[in-house]
Amino acid sequence: MISSLKQPPFNYRETIKNILRKFSIPWAVTIIFLAVILIIPMMALILESASLGWENFWQEATAEVAVASYIFTFGTALVASLINAVMGTLTAWVLVRYDFWGKKIIDATIDIPFALPTTVAGLVLATVYSEDGWIGQFFTPFGIQITFSPLGVFVAMLFIALPFVVRTLQPVLQEMGSEIEEVSWSLGASDWQTFRLVILPPLIPAISAGVALGFSRAVGSYGTIVIVASNIPFRDLIPPVLVLQKLEQYDYVGATVIGAVLLFISLVLLLIINLLQQWGKRYADN
Question: Topology versus the membrane, per the UniProt entry (predicted)?
């Protein structure tokens, strides 16, 4: 008891100072900002959908119109991404390896889908690919309608996702240089062997990352696609438009469930992208 009486009194000021010394303002600001902007809205969506119960959630998530929109959107985005993998690689190769008049202008236009407002991009595509548009008029005689059809959504996804592949590949090609190609040719390899065995392997991680980013962007796009599509269920309806239609019908439960499904799919895609980037980093280190 005597020893306890000899203990110094609790110093509140010193305790607060010690806490403040360990407190990091940048860390706290970052956590608060991410919580308000990112984490809390996602948690609200998850908790709201979870409150419906598994049976109701599954019924809404697997409704025929919802499943049809998932299949159409992901299938179209996958085909568009695979084509962009080829054409984006070719475009990046030409921009890095060739010098020609207007190269800087063409290089700058690659970023237009990034900078252009999505509704403006949709309006431009709907005008150019319409039945009497600059490009659409060449398909009209063959009975091919691009705008307000699934083909219009496909063209819009190509437009949206192309810059991701090109901009991901360009730094890798610039760093690679042309020396390894010249060495391969000097050793007697053909052009095809040089491309397949020397050039392509180091590009695969960058191509994969660009395709994954473009695929994610195409799946989540709304403003561009809603203008060039007819937005008819079981034809070319995409999930973001389905969410809006449900909100307009005051079906908040259905909109919440579709939003939660899109959130889950987006998280899976981000996980795949991170794995591809880590694989690419390990590949480059080796």
Answer: Multi-pass membrane protein
pLDDT for res 247: 86
Coil vs helix vs strand at 36:
helix
Q: Is 254 left (phi over 0), alpha (psi -120 to 50) or beta?
A: alpha
What residue type is 64 in one-letter code? Answer: E
Lookup: tokens for 47: 């908790």
CA 86 from chain centre, in angstroms, equals 18
Distance (Å, whole) CA 214 – CA 170: 15
How far apart (Å, rounded) are the C-alpha atoms in residues 143 and 246? Answer: 33
CB 280 within 8 A of CB 209: yes
Burial of 277 (0-12, 13-18, 19+ CB in 10 A): middle
Q: Which residues of the chain fall below pLDDT 70?
A: 1-12, 19-23, 277, 280-281, 283-286
Check: CB of residue 158 under 8 Å from CB of residue 83: yes
The separation between CA 201 and the C-alpha centre of its own chain, rounded to angstroms, equals 23
| Cα gap 116→108, rounded to integer Å | 12
Using an 8 Å Cβ cutoff, are 129 and 228 in contact?
Answer: yes
The alpha helices in the chain, defined as continuous H runs, are: 2-6, 12-22, 25-34, 40-50, 54-61, 64-97, 103-109, 112-115, 118-128, 150-176, 179-186, 191-194, 200-220, 223-228, 239-248, 252-285
- Rounded CA gap, 126 and 228, in Å? 5
Which residue has 């360009």 as its token pair?
170
